[in-house]
Design a protein that fits this description.
Elements: H1 2-32, H2 39-65, H3 67-74, H4 76-79, H5 83-112, H6 116-136
Length: about 150
């Protein structure tokens, strides 16, 4: 079960990143291009938030069945000094919760704005911050600190 959820979590990250980048493209193009906020833009906003929340659900499920997180919680005093254990036990989950919270705030605030430019601007700013937080906390395969494969097999 753990290997399947881990692979699923790894796969969904690409959907989160793709939808976030596409939504950012639409937000900046709409804001800077002075475009009208369409039903399509609204759907893109909703889909991005939904994919992020699905990833959050899978990530929390993974956290609670993970041997790494279990070790971190059970041996906190020692584990907090081990880089990889601390990353997955505390840093990754904290930063991703912040990132998804920022996506949720972006979606909720944009929904309530009255003008098209305010909607685009709100999404652009909040989602840019969310993207930076998320990118900083993904265990990239090329990272010298925490390295994990870009794709995991099921």
């Amino acid at each position: 079960m753990y290997a399947f959820i881990l692979a699923l979590h790894s796969l969904i990250r690409w959907f989160v990143l793709a939808s976030l980048l596409f939504t950012l493209y639409r937000a900046y193009a709409g804001w800077l291009g002075n475009k009208a906020y369409s039903k399509f833009d609204d759907r893109v906003r909703i889909i991005t938030a939904t994919i992020a929340h699905i990833q959050l659900t899978v990530g929390l499920w993974l956290y609670f069945i993970s041997p790494i997180a279990n070790y971190f919680i059970s041996h906190f005093k020692e584990a907090v000094h081990e880089r990889q254990i601390r990353f997955f036990g505390m840093e990754h989950i904290t930063m991703m919760l912040i990132g998804i919270t920022l996506i949720t705030i972006a979606s909720a605030k944009a929904k309530r704005k009255t003008t098209d430019q305010e909607k685009f601007k709100t999404m652009a700013i909040w989602l840019t911050i969310a993207l930076l937080v998320i990118l900083s906390s993904i265990p990239w395969s090329f990272s010298p600190l925490i390295s994990r494969p870009l794709f995991r097999p099921f």
